[in-house]
Amino acid sequence: MNLKKTYIICSTMRSGSTLxxxxxxxxxxxxxPQEFFLAEWEKKSKLDSSNxxxxxxxxxxxxxxxxxVSGVKLMWCNCQxxxxxxxxxxxxxxxxxxxxxxxxxxNLKFIFISRRNKVRQAISLARSIKTKRWNxxxxxxxxxxxxxxxxxxxxxxxxxxxxxxxxxxxxVYLSQIEKDEKAWFQFFExxxxxxxxxxxxxLAQNKQKNxxxxxxxxxxxxxxxxxxxxxxxxxxxxxxxLLLVQYRSYTLFKKWVPPKIFKRxxxxxxxxxxxxxxxxxxx
Length: 283
Hints:
It is built from twelve helices and four strands; from the N terminus they run E-H-H-H-E-H-H-E-H-H-E-H-H-H-H-H. The protein has helices at 17-27, 39-44, 52-62, 76-89, 97-104, 118-131, 167-190, 200-205, 207-217, 238-256, 259-264, 267-273, and strands at 5-11, 69-75, 108-114, 196-199. By secondary structure, the protein is an alpha/beta fold. A four-stranded parallel β-sheet has the order 2-1-3-4, with helices on both faces.
């Protein structure tokens, strides 16, 4: 199949990109955007990746919709590696990052998804890493989506959905999320790219409007029988709210309490540490 249009969904971890990709896939108008850039995906692929640009093109073609449109999701943590591999296979060193991407992605457009509440985003990331649970489906059957865990080296029991997460851990992930988002916008500015920006909170509240906006941005006609459903459920729950209160309390103490005294307030950690443990668990 000859690709006519392509797009890259640029995102940070736990920004709502999986939901966006799933909604777009259900329209059957813009391909099935996945994280094709992941090393895990490449290992599982039956395609030869020795010629990287050709591998990417064939992957896009295999997941394109019948109208020749295909897309991919790209995290900033993978972006530099992708660009480096494209530069290494290029016949000239004078081409820009955008020029190399456009050689693989015809009629390329960029979509950026972001979350307003980045503390909740950081908490979501911390919980996913701890529990190794990245998606929650509408039913007990996996509808064929593939979700890779980037943190296989972190061993935590998947049986406990409410693991202890320290405010310091949330703070670290929050800093990384903000750093990655800043890097994306710097990339857009350096390459004179004007992406369409999708806000997760708005997408979750009004899926139809936001997906129609994406299709309009990609210049795809919207059919009357378009499907705006998703396979996923919202993962945030009471424990997310509890961790949010914990983090807000932590930041207030950190701001107003002298550092020497703050370090001694270990009772804050001990108070929350056993919140999520089963009643029969040992301290």
